[in-house]
Structures are given as structure tokens and as C-alpha cells.
Amino acid sequence: MEQEHKYTIQNFDKEVLREYDIRGVVGDNINENTAYTIGRTFGYIVKSKLESNTIATGYDGRLTSPKLHNALCEGLKDSGSKVLNIGMGPTPMTYFAHYHLNTDAVIMVTGSHNPSEYNGFKMVLNKTSFFAEDIQSLQKLIDYNKIELEEGQIIKQNITTEYIKRNLLNISLKKKLKIAWDPGNGAMGKVTRAITENLHNSENIIINEEVDGNFPNHHPDPTVPKNMAQLIKTVIENDCDVGLAFDGDGDRLGVIDNLGNIVWADQYMLLLCSEIAHLYDNPKIIMDVKCSKVFFDEAKKINCDPVMSRTGHSPIKEKMKELNSPLSGEMSGHICYGDDFYGYDDAMYVGLRLLRILSNESKPLNDLINIYPKTFSTPETRFDVDESRKFIIIEEVKERLKKEDKKIIDIDGVRVENKDGWFLMRASNTQNQLTCRAESISEKGLHKLIGIIEDQLSLSGISYKFTI
């Protein structure tokens, strides 16, 4: 019976089943049969756990996404699922479909911030992140030949208007703001103009609006400073109050202040916390290990209870539920609102909340950020290593530093604090990369920390020099 179908079930390449999602290089270890197999196996799991399986699907603007999405939908249909295809758009719109359409699960076809040759799949089951061992279980179903061919259906469903209305709910600007927007030719470009047209008391300039999987202007990753250069120029030349940038699938936010400076997530999160602190009594705010010590210190001063977490939007979302946190996030710009929202990472909604806060302030964004202690830091620095070595390198570094009696926080990688500041070294769960970051109260201290990182990398056979 399987041979009659255009797609076939196949084993997964072990490198694509990652911690938070499934991701790989299209044509290398991801193809249409991979997508079909995900549909068949995930659909089976949903039905076995919930005894129903209505699943919403969407896809981003990458060139390979439509074909992968078609194969995914066919796989879900052949698992007996009722598939609600919401079409192309940002990942948060697919998450929204889970609530708005009351589905059992969702799958988004997206390569997120990865290079254009990558693509992948993000999954949610019963409003809970599907990650870690859940993802590994898909291969086990194939191993035990547990999946059967059943008859389902695919229905096209347009929820773009509803998504826009929900994001603008309770958002009003007290004073007029001039805003520069950069969807980076990613999927958020589908809704940016409609959002701005319905955002009263605003003047808006949109660049790189057209969804184009070639990413002709810059790569859509707002954590990389060079990708923010075009938005910085737009903010300065047009005397904007703020610039907002989105990653390829619209679940991570980058921010530029009124003077053209990058405002990192652990900085603008303090502004978001300032509003939350007035709505809750000592709320728990979760941030990942890559974030500044300044964030944790300053959040406490404004009646928040900051909690350090391992990196990853999936574990942070689950930690939010456990701690009943109204606001959480990570350095990469994944910010999740539980307050007046659903607890998932929607960069557009976060941007709108930030705009609402700025419209209630008499000072510009640059002045608001400058009240916090000044530090010297590296950006979130990522570089390629062999996939099979990335976790081993971190373990090697940890063991060496332990022998030096360093103060180590090892909830995710190695975070070391000393009199000069702190640094972090961790293995990426989504790419064959190491991530490093260092921060100090002095320029001299920062160079000392960088020296330790470079020495540790060298001892593990990695030659890398930081540029600040």
C-alpha cells in the first residue's frame, strides 16, 4: 500500500532530531520524505495520546518550505489527521492557530534563523512544547513499525486577519511614535504592513517587507550586528524613535534605539519587566544563562524575581508554566508573554508591548536603557565546530575549569563568574556551533575573560579569535 504514495516513510538522519525541533540541510539530511515521515509519526502520536488529531500547519518564506509543507500535510493526512493548513506566515501565527482553532497540535515548517539551505519543523502538542525525548520518539515509532495508514483530510484555513486583531488587542499608543520595521524578507513580512496600518498614533517605515527566501538584503538573524546595519541606517536617517527587527520566522525580536544603537534582549527585557512589576507582586521572570548579570541584579530592584534557566525556547516555555511566570525570554530574542497572552514567543506581540511602554514614557529609548550600569561585552558569538565534538568540547572545558576552582554555573554549558565579570561557553542545540559570550565592568576585564575563552578553546583544538 505504501508504494502507491508519492512519498515514503524513511529513517531520520540522527543529526536532524535536535533538542527543540527537527532541522537540517535540505537535500542532504532533510527532504520531502522526511517531512512525510514526520507527518505520519507525529499524527500517530497525537491520536494515541489524545484520541483525536486535528493538527494545524504552516510554513515560512524559505524557498524549500512549500514542498516540505505539502509532504508534511500528506503524511499527517495519511496518519488519519484532520489537517488545518493556514499557509505561509510567521511561526507565531501557527502557534496562534493552536488556540484560535482549538487544535490538538501544530507543526510549523521553518528554518528559523539558520542559513538559507536549512529547513526544519517546530511542533507543539496539546499546548505543550514537543521537544527532547518527544522528538527522539518519532524514530522509535519507525523502528517498531507502529504506524498504520489511515484516511484523513486537509482543509485550507486563513487566520491572518484574526492573528493581526489578536496581536493588536489592548495595544494603544499614548503618544505618537515613529517606528522602523525590518522583517528581513522573512515570514513576518506577510503581516507587518497590516499591523502598522492598524496601529494608531504611529508613523511607520518598513524595509525588506517582501517575503523572499533568497534573503537578498541580509540574513534574518537580529542577534548578528551586521544584520542590523540596514535598520540602524533607517532609524538614524528618518529620526525614528525605535527600530524593530525580526528573524526569518518571526519568533525573535531585535531592537534599535533612537540613536541607532542595538538594544540587546537582556536590556529591553528590563523595560518589559518594569511594566510587569506593576501588574504582579514579585513575579518570576525567567531568562537564560546567556543573559547579563545586570539583568538579574536590576530585575530584583524593580520587584521582580529573576530565575536563570538553560537556553532554549521550549524548556523556557515549560518552566513558565511550572513557575506561573508572566514574562520570560532568552538572549537570542525569544521572548514569551504569559501576561495577557498565550505564553509562546511572538516577536510581533513583544514589539507591540514594547511600543506601548515607550509611548507612556517621557524619555527616549536610549535614555531609558542608559539608566542601567554600563558594561563591556561581546555579542552572542557563534562559530562552527564538528557536530560530534560540540558537547564534548564543553565537557572538556568544564573539567579543566573545575580543577582551577572557578565558580561555575553548569545548568547549560559553562558559565563562569569572577572579579572581572562572567563568561559563557555552551553547545548549540540547533546548529553545529559553540556559543560564547563575555561581559565585564571594564574593557580590560573583558579582554581577560576573552583570553580565558580563547585559551580553553585552544586546549580543545579550536582556534578562534574574538573581535569586539
Q: Any overview of this molecule?
A:
Helix content is 35%, strand content 22%. It is α/β, with parallel strands linked by helices and 468 residues long. The strands form four sheets. Strands 1, 2, 3, 4, 5, 6 and 7 form a seven-stranded mixed β-sheet that branches. Strands 17, 18, 19, 20, 21 and 22 form a six-stranded antiparallel β-sheet that branches. The longest helix is centred in the first third of the chain and has 19 residues, at 32-50. It is globular and about 65 Å long. The protein starts with 21 loop residues before the first strand and ends in a 9-residue tail after the last helix.
How would you describe this structure in keywords?
Alpha-D-Glucose-1,6-Bisphosphate, Chain A, domain 3; six-stranded antiparallel beta sheet; 3 domains; alpha/beta; TATA-Binding Protein
Task: Please sum up the structure shown.
With 468 residues, this protein is of the alpha/beta class. Helix content is 35%, strand content 22%.
